[in-house]
Amino acid sequence: MVSVDLKGFGASPKPDDGAYSPADQAELLVRLILLRDLHRVTLVGHSLGGGICLMASLRLLGSHPDRLWRLVVVSGASYAQPLPPFVWFANHRRLGLGLMRMLGARFVVRWVLKRIVFDPSGISHAQVRGYAESLTHRDTRRALVDTALQILPPDLDSLTDAKLVILDGCGHLPAEELPEQSLKSLESFLDRTDAT
Fold this sequence. Notes:
By secondary structure, this protein is mainly α. It has helices at residues 22-35, 48-63, 86-91, 93-103, 105-116, 125-132, 138-149, 174-177, 179-191; strands spanning 41-46, 68-74.
């Protein structure tokens, strides 16, 4: 298994080059798969990562179909949907970055989490701390804004051909809100011999 930190996230570099669109990220993911000479790959992506995995899958199918086996998109941009709340901040870059500095990363993270989960009372201090930790760095905040500004690919409608699974009583974080049910749905898909 290979776990990938997308450019600008986690411990990955955060260059100030503005290339943070899903297409840019998908290109980097495809390059990683080719560099590692991976075959029969199952790509699993959550949220923005799901949309990136979808775009990477389409690129692989077009040029290296033997590399891809299956794709799982969890709470991702595979269908048209309301934009997450932090995108508003990105469209008002100075205001958004100023508010994050003034209010603090933990406050902003808690505010965003409360708007994307089904049951806000389940948000823990550890979750907030975990998500907010990297946002204390200026480069991470800039990379997040650059990503949010480019989050919707212009050709989103042409990218989708998928099986949709809806988990009742769940928001944007199924692995954290309904971990057992989320894992069961994923395993059920991955166990299918006809899954492509």
